[in-house]
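Notebook, p. 212. Picked up where the previous page left off. The plan for this session was modest: take the two constructs that came back from the sequencing core last week, fold each one, and keep the raw output in the notebook itself so nobody has to go hunting through shared drives later. Recording the first one now, exactly as returned: residue sequence, then the structure token string.
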Amino acid sequence: MLCRVKGVSFAGFNISLSWGIRPSLHEIMDSINSLGRALIAFDEAQNQRGKLATNFISLLAHCYDYCSNVNFILTGSEVGLLYDLLGIYDVESPLYGRHLDEGQQV
């Protein structure tokens, strides 16, 4: 389905994709990072499960380490499950030991 998408344009930023060779999510995020500041928000992030959750956490860890221009906002109605997803207290998690700015909880 995504092979029909030729690119993305938002607020003056353009990303063109060539599907001859599929880029990884890490490569896409590196490209977004090279464009300048980006803010990506996920609502109800705690609902991710299985392989999707594993890939998501890996992507967040990659961006934390290599994409200084990319920031994420994760929201959810079940903060305990969100902490479980992130694994910030789990030594096996890619995000373990990284700074977490919790902002303001409502």
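Okay, moving on. Second construct, recorded in the same format:
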Amino acid sequence: MRGVFHCLFIALVAATSLWCQSTAMPLTSGETVSGKRIVLAEVLRGHTSVLVMSFSREAGDRSSAWVRPDRADAALAGVTVYKAAMLQAAPGLVRGVIKNSMRKGLTASEQDHTVILAQDEKLWRSYFGVTTDKDPYVILLDAAGQVRWQGHGEARDLEPLLKAALK
């Protein structure tokens, strides 16, 4: 009986993984910290891409470790890297302050690749399979927009797995 439950559990995990990988990225309009309106799903289409997403300030602070080293890493040459922050829960007046804070210290290119989202939080949480707000969530997409790898947590722990998925 235990073996049957074990097999059912494995099948459920496999089905969930396939469902997550076949789910389309939400078509939410956002704004880069440089002020440009974009839809991430459209911008990332046609490119091998990494998207780092945060759902809290703590995760946003920790997501920088994913983004900055990746831009200089030869293993990620030719990979489009975007960082996104979900701010739907933040009051409208506070969003501008957050955006200005995020802009500090970023190059013009980094500002164009850092996106503020203020709607569809439930869709994005579902897309990433969010289990904790404290972690940044990372996905590797192929040119067709299919998720090839996903993880959440510290860059130092998971970055080798991301690089291995690129090979």
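Notes on construct two before I forget. The CA atoms of residues 36 and 112 lie 7 Å apart.
Flagging for discussion at group meeting.
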